[in-house]
Amino acid sequence: xxxxxxxxxxxxxxxxxxxxxxxxxxxxxxxxxxxxxxxxxxxxxxxxxxxxxxxxxxxxxxxxxxxxxxxxxxxxxxxxxxxxxxxxxxxxxxxxxxxxxxxxxxxxxxxxxxxxxxxxxxxxxxxxxxxxxxxxxxxxxxxxxxxxxxxxxxxxxxxxxxxxxxxxxxxxxxxxxxxxxxxxxxxxxxxxxxxxxxxxxxxxxxxxxxxxxxxxxxxxxxxxxxxxxxxxxxxxxxxxxxxxxxxxxxxxxxxxxxxxxxxxxxxxxxxxxxxxxxxxxxxxxxxxxxxxxxxxxxxxxxxxxxxxxxxxxxxxxxxxxxxxxxxxxxxxxxxxxxxxxxxxxxx
Amino acid sequence: xxxxxxxxxxxxxxxxxxxxxxxxxxxxxxxxxxxxxxxxxxxxxxxxxxxxxxxxxxxxxxxxxxxxxxxxxxxxxxxxxxxxxxxxxxxxxxxxxxxxxxxxxxxxxxxxxxxxxxxxxxxxxxxxxxxxxxxxxxxxxxxxxxxxxxxxxxxxxxxxxxxxxxxxxxxxxxxxxxxxxxxxxxxxxxxxxxxxxxxxxxxxxxxxxxxxxxxxxxxxxxxxxxxxxxxxxxxxxxxxxxxxxxxxxxxxxxxxxxxxxxxxxxxxxxxxxxxxxxxxxxxxxxxxxxxxxxxxxxxxxxxxxxxxxxxxxxxxxxxxxxxxxxxxxxxxxxxxxxxxxxxxxxxxxxxxxxxxxxxxxxxxxxxxxxxxxxxxxxxxxxxxxxxxxxxxxxxxxxxxxxxxxxxxxxxxxxxxxxxxxxxxxxxxxxxxxxxxxxxxxxxxxxxxxxxxxxxxxxxxxxxxxxxxxxxxxxxxxxxxxxxxxxxxxxxxxxxxxxxxxxxxxxxxxxx
Lengths: 347, 511
Description:
The structure holds 2 protein chains of 2 kinds.
Chain A lengths: L23 H7 L1 H20 L6 H26 L7 H17 L9 H23 L3 H20 L9 H7 L4 E2 L2 E2 H19 L1 H11 L1 H6 L4 H27 L9 H12 L11 H20 L8 H27 L3
Antiparallel strand pairs in A: 1-2
Helix pairs in contact in A: 2-13, 2-14, 3-8, 3-9, 3-11, 3-12, 3-13, 4-5, 4-6, 4-11, 5-6, 5-11, 7-11, 8-9, 9-11, 12-13, 13-14
Chain B lengths: L19 E10 L2 E11 L4 E5 L6 H8 L7 E6 L2 E3 L4 H6 L2 E4 L11 H5 L6 E2 L2 E2 L1 H14 L15 H14 L4 E5 L7 H16 L3 E5 L3 H7 L2 E6 L2 E7 L5 H9 L15 E2 L8 E10 L3 E9 L3 E5 L6 H8 L7 E6 L2 E3 L4 H7 L1 E4 L13 H6 L3 H4 L6 H15 L15 H11 L7 E5 L7 H16 L3 E6 L2 H7 L2 E6 L2 E7 L2 E2 L1 H7 L1
Helix pairs in contact in B: 13-14
């Protein structure tokens, strides 16, 4: 061998060493993807604490957690999908359909499964997710189109199964899970459940081989393929995960509302994707993760809640204002990442 | 028809006054200096070669010329007037055009549309196709390319596509054209044609900057040559009387004789055929349109060189072995057992490793070097839970073994120079010793020193008993280390060289 480079020794030579100093600015720009949403979160938190009376009360914080928890579960699945550089537009419809199925099996007019309807409903969500995944990864339908079709299919099935009417009885276990009054040490159980799913997602993405394959497939699918990664399977499994977490979200919703409405839940799609992207996970794949998603959810939850508490703002203007603040947060993200990118460019 | 296109910018009357001059240009990225006080001048109607090792600053200089980067210090003067390009579009508007290594054409569109990309001639809001085709044909003809302008660009060879791109840049009014490694993907005759076209442009008064690793190419066409080294300019010299050895000496400051080996022009003696165990054997392999009747054996501890021009079918054979293409006919056997890999994962598990020729398809620029390296054998290298500690340690070992610089597995791979990225990709396949290692253009675009390191590493693997298939369109690369050489032409094996003397000319004779 021509030259054995001593491991860990400082190496000079003609190759420019781009990461030279450990200055604070350097560190910040390298972590821009986490830092920008973190700053947004801290800013909003302090802002609403100061401007409103109610924001920083335990009850209100519990409210935020309860509101954001179902979205958080679907956000875990969407994080997988976005990291793969794919998209899943069917999550809201799959959530609604799974919820409707859970109530439908529980009520048992046609098929009586009782509480066992919950795992069966989730298995059906899984099947839809696998179908999404198979047709995207192996047949080659773009995920945008495939999941758009699935959106319509699942929505239609919800209406078909429920005959278009809300079902007003749901498994008690879901009611207990969804209720604000179910708490452990002052934290709503639904929040703990969401946290558990988030942590599981973080573990899979950050510490398992499958998680690494998800990142690498999204970062450069061809290169992952050239490294012997079965990228088709990775994409299929990610879309399946997304459908299952969406299904869980739907079940949490019917628990919280104590009813399953086939016409509800359309907001879930936009809210989930907005929260994940707000957190800094790239829409183009390969970058971001559950930490980002957690920050995005917190920003989103605070914003949703805090704006309602602001005095002197006409209620009719709230939604537009929410959109404007979201836009501002996204702009901050883009600028932060631009700084990072300019720095990372070497030769 | 000439009225359709702006004339190439008029040449200044003072013959030797530079049309473009860079004075004391410095560019830093973070703490690293990519260009240090570099002067550069381009005269009207000259071809100016720009050479240097990987990381010497060629790309940065080119990006400053083309407006991608703004210099931190120093000035740019265009036709004697100080300028500052804020963007590539602005540089283009001022008559500085770029031909990038990776072509930026639209293969589905017609040739004429590509020549006129973004500025189709119109009359009354409607594209005047006739005028456009005629003008495109005329422009391409003046570069020596006779084609039907209505044909889709993708139907042309890579060399001809490049010619179309040059026509586009020149036709849009660029009096200064910067060509980045234009010959790296071209066959010999295609390069010759490119040089002829460059000479014509020069005769028309255009000024060209020619960036290349191929010193012969630079010597063949350049009027003057600027050598960069370690972000500084070494010299600008008139071509007359320069030799390749002299250029290499200037580029790397090492003794040029030591490099003669890897550039064997006189011929080398292949070793007598050794009787190693047959690891891989191909019989009558065929993929319509790519290759046919491919049969050969590859032995343990052997380097089998495959030489051919671009499009000879070598990459397709490699892809078939790596499970990316399923051949229509023929058999592949590994250790005597027939195999038929259908996915890259299958091939990987069988012990076949493949280093692709296309770096964009192999590197994860925005992920750490260690993640790049561990990916290929992630499923067997580490336990069920990934922890950075052991993973980085494995990567560090491979980084040391392959001589990646800087030797820091925590850097993002995109921060390394091209040659070092290639070493990272090689390192990826060495975390577990492969049975068969397929190297497709392993040293393309590398500087001389890095080339030597990679070839030494390949030799070491051969000594460990790995069966190595070395594919290259550069005869020097194949000649440097091969035990046997197969020459391919148009998808068929035309000649096997074993146990005899072989030279560059002999190889090219059969390609």
